[in-house]
């Protein structure tokens, strides 16, 4: 597989070559989740949708560690490749795989053992409680595969290969969709968990075989303490960021549970549709992380800045197009998952508030956070997570729900990315000043 050389060529062309396959992989993951919702909605009904909505949020929290690990692996491997340290990059790969195994086991056990009391504490509607717990107990068994898949995909992207992770995503989506259709009629909501576990485990084995073939050996270089420490310096703040954000969504879901199964089902269906707006955001962020980290490792900060500016423009522009599409088709999108008019109304209200102009601020925030993580400021993303998730999303929801009810939750979510977006923009401005002071010229010329 041909890998992208981020140190040569036009930044815009490189980002496009990287981001399009990454977008394909993200879209496939979204399609996978949408099919789960469709099948559960058709065979189980509102009870199943409410259970899956809650279980999905818990899953996002658990997977936060794998997402943080993926960011750390991408940045560390890419920086070492930029510095010409091939053995160091292989050691970083080994550190990522080792961490994936350890973290997945530490997360899977409590998820499997504590699912029922956790959902009880979150106030999941009684009729959906057993289904949510059954789903999580099965899904936890697939976490080692999911974590390994995230780590190997991050290593591939760090080396400039976004196509192989896309094909692995094709395999995951195919197995999971087919399995969900086959198993949900017999096993209920837990059927989607069984298919997800099988899909992630299969893809993890395939990804490890691909990496072994590329390096010519079954195992990567043995990581030293410095490799694990270097990974942790980036991965820990990134994981903290993801955990805080997803815990805030879990808190929001718990607040939504108080408004009954109908509202929970509508919000859950709308969340799936809302992920469409996140597809270009996450793809552009992955591209910026890999490219800017490679340039930072090579000492070419002007080029890193060019990638940040280009990625920011692509992320915001593409998100604007998707938001227009979602707003135009909001009732039809929610109606894919439910036919109850009250459920559809709750879902449409969610999309009107949470997939609008605020999505543009989220797109900018994510691209800027990705750039900060790649260029030596991973803690900025962690600070932004606290601002986004705790201060605004949860804090404002607590204040507004007693006054506005369910719309208060939506208002808090819509406003959450604005403040962190401003913080990220300030970091980009300071970085640009630093580049100008080092080169004595406008950093735009470096692109």
Q: What is this structure, in a nutshell?
A:
Helices cover 85% and strands 0% of the residues. It has helices at 11-43, 46-82, 86-113, 115-121, 126-139, 143-158, 163-187, 190-215, 225-257, 261-298, 301-328, 330-335, 341-354, 357-374, 378-404, 406-415, 418-439. The longest helix is centred in the middle third of the chain and has 38 residues, at 261-298.
- From the N-terminal CA to the C-terminal CA, the straight-line distance is 26 Å
Tally of DSSP β-strands: 0
- Overall spatial form: globular
- List the total number of helices: 17
The Rg value, from CA coordinates, equals: 21 Å
Mean pLDDT: 86
- Coarse structural class: mainly alpha
Helix content bin: over 70%
Largest sheet: none
- β-strand percent reads under 5%
Q: Return the domain count.
A: 1
SSE order, one letter for each helix or strand: HHHHHHHHHHHHHHHHH
Residue runs with pLDDT of under 50 for 5 or more positions: 442-447
Overview of this structure, please?
The chain has 447 residues and is mainly alpha-helical. The C terminus is likely disordered. Helix 11 runs antiparallel to helix 17 and helix 14 packs antiparallel against helix 15. It has 17 helices and no strands. The protein has one domain.
């Amino acid at each position: 597989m041909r890998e992208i050389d981020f140190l040569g060529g036009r930044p815009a062309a490189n980002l496009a070559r990287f981001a399009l396959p990454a977008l394909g992989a993200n879209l496939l993951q979204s399609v996978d989740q949408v099919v789960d919702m469709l099948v559960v909605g058709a065979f189980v009904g509102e009870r199943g949708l409410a259970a899956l909505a809650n279980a999905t949020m818990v899953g996002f929290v658990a997977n936060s560690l794998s997402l943080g690990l993926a960011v750390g692996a991408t940045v560390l491997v890419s920086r070492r490749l930029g510095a010409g340290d091939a053995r160091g990059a292989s050691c970083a790969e080994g550190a990522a795989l080792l961490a994936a195994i350890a973290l997945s086991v530490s997360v899977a056990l409590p998820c499997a053992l504590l699912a029922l009391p956790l959902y009880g504490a979150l106030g999941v509607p009684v009729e959906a409680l057993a289904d949510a717990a059954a789903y999580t107990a099965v899904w936890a068994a697939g976490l080692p595969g999911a974590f390994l898949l995230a780590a190997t995909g991050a290593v591939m992207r760090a080396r400039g290969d976004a196509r192989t992770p896309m094909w692995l995503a094709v395999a995951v989506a195919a197995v999971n969709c087919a399995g969900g259709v086959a198993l949900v009629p017999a096993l209920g909501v837990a059927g989607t968990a069984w298919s997800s576990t099988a899909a992630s485990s299969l893809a993890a084995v395939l990804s490890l075989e691909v990496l072994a073939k590329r390096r010519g050996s079954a195992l990567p270089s043995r990581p030293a303490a410095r490799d694990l420490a270097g990974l942790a310096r980036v991965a820990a703040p990134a994981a903290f960021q993801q955990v805080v954000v997803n815990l805030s969504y879990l808190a929001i879901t718990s607040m939504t549970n108080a408004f009954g199964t109908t509202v929970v089902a509508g919000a859950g269906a709308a969340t799936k549709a809302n992920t469409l707006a996140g597809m270009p955001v996450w793809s552009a962020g992955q591209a910026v992380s890999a490219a800017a980290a490679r340039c930072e490792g090579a000492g070419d900060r002007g080029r890193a800045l060019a990638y940040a500016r280009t990625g920011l423009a692509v992320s915001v522009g593409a998100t604007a197009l998707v938001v227009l599409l979602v707003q135009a088709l909001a009732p039809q999108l929610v109606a894919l998952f439910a036919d109850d008019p009250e459920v559809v109304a709750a879902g449409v209200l969610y999309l009107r508030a949470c997939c609008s102009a605020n999505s543009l601020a989220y797109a900018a925030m994510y691209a800027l956070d990705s750039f900060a993580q790649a260029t030596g400021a991973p803690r900025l993303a962690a600070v932004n997570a606290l601002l986004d998730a705790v201060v605004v999303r949860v804090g404002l929801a607590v204040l507004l729900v007693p006054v506005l009810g369910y719309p208060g939750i939506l208002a808090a979510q819509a406003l959450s990315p604005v403040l962190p977006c401003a913080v990220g923009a300030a970091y980009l401005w300071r970085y640009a000043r630093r580049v100008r002071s080092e080169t004595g010229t406008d950093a735009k010329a470096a692109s």
